[in-house]
């Protein structure tokens, strides 16, 4: 099936393009971007022009930043094409609710992806936690924004989510593996004096789970989730790719290697079954953190 | 049926107690509060003690501020009693989702009330808008926080919602009467230098609807919603109680006079039918405003 990719930036070139090149299900047939392009693939700057020129493109995958994403998503659904959304699926909850309703009306698939849920240890972690009682835990999600988002000022603008852009990956894993829903009880947000979005955050969840999110990590990067239960200790590290139970490594479930190849395989399966997949639990926790969070002003940040 | 009232502050004494006194459905059988009490009604400071002492109390109505409300709500549902929540129904979306799940498991009613939806002109406004296309509009919701929330510092703390405490009343009407879902596209939040929550906000919604919320209004108070449509102009004023179409007053639907008497009548009906009513659309818009909103620091505020 032919697919178009919109928003040809770092994540598209690093992950989406290679995943599509290796996919048995999809052929990248067009791109949409203001500046970026992919060698050998027709490039467009206007989404309606792209959709009109390529009626054979059945699906569009959006990697635009969250704020400009809605208009493109709406154009895709209005044209009756299937829609795949990079995380987070939108800038607001209400707009994703609107997209869900539009996709249902149009009879097409909408897939709000959470790539970290496809990391190698996550499915086995979920299986192991089922039926166990979580008694506490700690998320440590610390990375260097200058490395992963060089010069991307939008990430610190209002609606850009700041450190929750990576932090929502941790929350997407947490909400997927916990046997009961996560509930935020307190949050502290550190906002650089010259920015709108947080550069660090500390979150408290019911049941003794805490999260330490930081965008200023230099040297080794840390993407760890550790949970204590009534039946042992679970540790996911390397962004969900390494699972240890009571300090012993556990083999993941296998399946497709690579988060983005797994996402595109799932998209193909959803389209084939006429199904959709939109789980907003990670985004609800972020909205709750912005609503409930106590803000502190910290040192200005420049790339 | 016997009911208990928790959180005996200004809104409880101004609205809930008189509404219950006049209700043909309910008898106020106990109160829960740190300091407040109601003449002639048994008063408790501990919710579990109250529930244990009064197994005949079938429902509890919570008027506590949003942050401490969850623990009380959970205690009510754990005791298998019906639950009625003053707006907003919680400090976070995830906690209300959790309460919904708990109520469903316990087989009891949960009613997240929006008192402004019971204002006299709202049902007729909704009927008139059905089938019309809204082409623009303006919400003006300006009141004096010193008058309505004297000394209530919690309202400006993190999670207290600030000007969204009254503003969510406007949003509860808007989301109830609009023929299509409201979607926030931009927000500006004014935060006093010595506070955490906004004292004023300007919101933009898709379709040309704007909102001007302000907690610093002195003199006459303004609670107006004006909508332009392809079939005329609608104006709701006095907090939804006066409806005008093309500048001519329209009779409301009648029914029960008074927002709180109407809420308690609806609660009795929900319990009788074994039903629940939790519409989070107004709260989603507030969470979206906190997530997407651009913040500016304004003059300190003291009561």
Note down, in words, how this protein is organized.
Chains A, B: One of its GO terms (molecular function) is nucleotide binding. Chains A, B: This is Gfo/Idh/MocA family oxidoreductase. Chains A, B: Residues 1-111 form the Gfo/Idh/MocA-like oxidoreductase N-terminal domain. Chains A, B: It holds the Pfam family GFO_IDH_MocA. Chains A, B: InterPro entries: Gfo/Idh/MocA-like_OxRdtase_N (IPR000683), Gfo/Idh/MocA_oxidrdct_glycsds (IPR050463), NAD(P)-bd_dom_sf (IPR036291). The structure is a homodimer of 303-residue chains. Chain A is α/β, with parallel strands linked by helices. Chain A folds into 2 domains: 2-112, NAD(P)-binding Rossmann-like Domain (Rossmann fold), CATH 3.40.50.720; 116-253 and 287-298, Dihydrodipicolinate Reductase, domain 2, CATH 3.30.360. Chain A is 33% helix and 27% strand. Chain A contains 9 helices and 15 strands. In chain A, the strands form 2 sheets. A 9-stranded mixed beta sheet of chain A has the order 14-13-12-11-7-10-9-8-15, with helices on one face. In chain A, strands 3-2-1-4-5-6 form a 6-stranded parallel beta sheet, with helices on both faces. In chain A, strand 12 (232-237) and strand 13 form a beta hairpin. The radius of gyration of chain A is 19 Å and the shape is globular. The N and C termini of chain A lie far apart (40 Å). The model of chain A has no long low-confidence stretch (mean pLDDT 96). Chains A and B meet through helix 4 and helix 9 of A and helix 4 and helix 9 of B.
């Amino acid at each position: 099936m032919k697919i178009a990719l919109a928003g040809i930036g770092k994540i598209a070139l690093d992950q989406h393009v290679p995943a599509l090149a290796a996919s048995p299900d999809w052929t990248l047939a067009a791109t949409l971007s203001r500046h970026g392009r992919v060698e050998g693939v027709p490039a467009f700057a206007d989404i309606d022009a792209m959709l009109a020129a390529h009626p054979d493109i059945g699906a569009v995958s959006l990697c635009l930043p969250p704020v400009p994403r809605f208009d493109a998503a709406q154009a895709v659904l209005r044209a009756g094409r299937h829609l795949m959304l990079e995380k987070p699926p939108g800038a607001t909850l209400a707009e994703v609710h609107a997209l869900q309703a539009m996709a249902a009306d149009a009879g097409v698939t909408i897939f709000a992806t959470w790539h970290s849920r496809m990391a190698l240890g996550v499915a086995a972690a979920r299986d192991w936690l089922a039926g166990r009682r979580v008694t506490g835990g700690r998320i440590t999600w610390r990375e260097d924004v200058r490395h992963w988002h060089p010069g991307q000022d939008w990430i610190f603008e209002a609606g850009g989510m700041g450190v929750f852009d990576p932090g929502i990956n941790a929350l997407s894993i947490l909400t997927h593996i916990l046997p009961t829903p996560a509930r935020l009880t307190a949050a502290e947000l550190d906002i650089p004096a010259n920015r709108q979005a947080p550069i660090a955050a500390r979150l408290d969840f019911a049941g003794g789970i805490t999260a330490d999110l930081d965008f200023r990590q230099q040297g080794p990067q840390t993407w760890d989730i550790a949970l204590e239960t009534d039946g042992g200790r679970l540790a996911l590290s390397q962004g969900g790719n390494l699972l240890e139970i009571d300090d012993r490594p556990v083999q993941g479930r296998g399946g497709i290697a690579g988060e983005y190849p797994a996402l595109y395989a799932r998209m193909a399966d959803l389209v084939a079954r006429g199904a959709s997949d939109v789980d907003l639990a990670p985004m609800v926790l972020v909205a709750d953190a912005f609503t409930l969070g106590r803000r502190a002003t910290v040192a200005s940040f420049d790339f």
